[in-house]
Design brief:
eight-stranded mixed β-sheet, 20 strands, six-stranded antiparallel β-sheet
């Protein structure tokens, strides 16, 4: 019989963080780390953390007593007792108690990743470091969380007399396009954020086998912190998107994205691709599009390097894959049993699409090295030092294959730097793109 957890009103692990108190009711040990629960008590006239986004977990807030003001982007909502706020990954948010009485919330985390964040803040304070916005952001970054710097850091210091809804002109949202190749039509979904076209440096951000969520957080960070226009497509077959039966290889995907750049009328584009997205970016560079100003290959697969094979990830469990993919896999625990049936179906479809695109040669095309010799775009090969899916010498082989390419080893990160260390990875990408931009945007 499984153990049952009963936490009484005076029980639980209590963490004091200045004017806030967190009582951990469930740290994930009873739920197989599928769910964590805390009770947050906030003193009157207390601001919450800097507005931020999570990449790896959903967060829920149920207001038990008092009134909490939630700021979501540029909108502030007064939430009296009985209000539930659910925050999905990628949504900017923070909260504050602007009233004269304490406010109490029930806080949930699915999975339980963020419970340890509160313990780390406690340990930081105990070590003599003040809890400032900067130090809080630093601790957040350990748990796939980044500041939402394009929005105000928190609610106003007094309750608003009315609710104001504003739409940022830099966020243009998700659109669908039907593109035509010789083989047929393809419906392509893209997400666009950042500066209006013509006012920011354009980026085409190509995700890897984990799906579009593996670049979503970094896309938002790039759009927020740099004068950029970020286009993030969903590869056909991933994320619930349909894949025509004839679309079965990476070179054809590259043709699709060349057509997308033409359709959108983009110029001076930096193409950034991770894992199989890097392979697509390399094939796109080999096509020689004059709409591209630079290429960034991030732990890319796609070439054959004797003695340095691409790890066979298909038979691995999520835990085993995390061990190969991350410098610190403990921060990216994942339990498939927490997924809904719909989410599980998307994962299965992602895997099936990846197997199709990977081809018969274990995530590689033996003809690609020869074609890379013709690439003329400035190219950066950025490599997470701890990657065990494709090691650093495999990355150096990429840089040797592309004329004039620069290789940069990234410490303290693995196969997906944009997920594990996004704040450190951002200037690497931006500085290279900016140095090779035809028209540098205003900072």
């Amino acid at each position: 019989m499984s153990d049952v957890s009963l936490v009484g009103p005076d029980d639980g692990e209590t963490i004091h963080l200045g004017p806030a108190r967190i009582r951990i009711l469930e740290d994930g040990s009873t739920t197989g780390h599928r769910l964590g629960i805390g009770e947050i008590t906030i003193a009157p006239h207390t601001q919450g953390p800097p507005q931020h986004r999570h990449a790896q977990h959903d967060e829920g807030f149920y207001v038990v007593s008092g009134t909490v003001h939630f700021t979501i982007g540029q909108t502030t909502h007064a939430a009296p007792a009985g209000t539930l706020a659910m925050i999905p990954p990628g949504a900017p948010h923070t909260f504050a108690n602007l009233g004269d009485e304490p406010a109490v919330m029930l806080n949930t985390f699915t999975p339980d990743l963020y419970v340890q964040y509160f313990r780390d803040l406690r340990d930081m304070i105990a070590g003599g470091r003040e809890m400032t916005p900067e130090s809080t952001i630093e601790v957040m970054s350990r748990y796939a969380t980044v500041p939402a710097t394009d929005f105000a850091k928190g609610p106003p210091t007094h309750p608003p007399c009315r609710t104001t809804y504003l739409r940022s002109t830099s966020m243009t949202g998700t659109t669908s396009h039907t593109l035509s190749l010789a083989q047929g039509d393809v419906d392509l979904t893209i997400d666009v954020q950042g500066r209006p076209q013509g006012e920011g440096h354009p980026f085409l951000l190509l995700h890897g086998g984990g799906g579009p969520q593996t670049v979503a957080l970094f896309a938002g960070l790039l759009a927020e912190q740099r004068p950029a226009r970020v286009i993030t497509p969903v590869h056909p077959g991933f994320g619930g998107a349909a894949r025509p039966t004839w679309l079965t290889d990476v070179p054809t995907l590259a043709q699709l994205y060349a057509q997308l750049l033409d359709t959108l009328g983009l110029e001076d584009v930096t193409v950034v691709g991770n894992s199989i997205g890097g392979w697509i970016a390399a094939e796109l560079a080999a096509l020689g599009s004059d709409r591209i100003s630079s290429i960034v290959l991030v732990n890319a697969v796609g070439i054959q390097v004797p003695g340095h094979p691409v790890a066979d990830t298909f038979p691995l469990s999520p835990g085993e894959l995390a061990q190969l993919s991350f410098h610190d896999p403990s921060k990216f625990r994942f339990d498939p049993s927490t997924l809904s049936d719909a989410q599980r179906a998307v994962m299965v479809a992602n895997r099936a699409a990846l197997e199709v695109y990977s081809g018969p040669n274990a995530m590689a095309d033996p003809t690609l090295l020869e074609r890379l010799a013709k690439v003329t775009h400035p190219t950066l090969v950025a490599w997470g030092e701890s990657d065990q899916v494709v090691d650093a010498d495999y990355g150096r082989a990429w840089a040797d294959a592309v004329p004039g390419a620069r290789f940069e080893l990234l410490p303290g990160t693995g196969h997906m730097p944009q997920v594990e260390t996004p704040a450190e990875f951002l200037p690497v990408v931006w500085d290279f793109a900016d140095a090779h931009a035809t028209n540098r945007p205003t900072h």
